[in-house]
Amino acid sequence: MMITKECSAILQNRMPEKLNDPGSFVLSCKIGSTHFHRALCDLGSSVNLMPYSVAKLLGITDFKPTKISLVFADRSVRRPVGVIMDVPIMVGDCYIPADFVVLELEHQPKDPLILGRPFLATAGAIIDVKNGKIDLHLGDIVMNFEVNKSMEKSTVDGQAFWIGELAETREEVLDELLLIDPLELALTKAETEYEYMEREAQCLVKFMDSKEAYKP
């Protein structure tokens, strides 16, 4: 009797153990004299994010103007207050420089700092999801951290974080993100141009293809 490769792997117990969601990855850090015990490490964020209230707490009031926009998980678009350059973040015994985008929020999030890909790249972070560990490689120094596995996803105003950046030179893309008419989108844009809108466009095309041609 012939069996498939999938069945063979199951019968011979070659498949890895199925694991649950390990939760969010956090670091304890310090800016100035202020400790942050739950700074969220987020590979899904293209920027480092700091709430305006935290910036005021740190005594920072001078922000570099910016025209970038932030796209959140629910596709809402927000403009930040400004940018703070070269903030020294103390992790362990080392200082790591980071630029923060400052955003004004209605409610203080549970995890006030979002350390995105720029910080993780600067810190030489290696995230071991299976074992719940983060290693930071700073030159000859390697720091190992056990992360808190019981955390839930960080939210702002009840919305999960996914942060993308819209550059100043792409204002026309921002206008297209705000389109609410799927017919206009399908008629003016290719289906593969924006993956997150592909489902709506495909549904509209199928609907139009299912209709008979109009005969005057």
From TrEMBL:
It comes from Microthlaspi erraticum. InterPro entries: Peptidase_aspartic_dom_sf (IPR021109). It comes from the Eukaryota. This is Aspartic peptidase DDI1-type domain-containing protein. Coiled coil: none annotated. Transmembrane segments: none annotated.
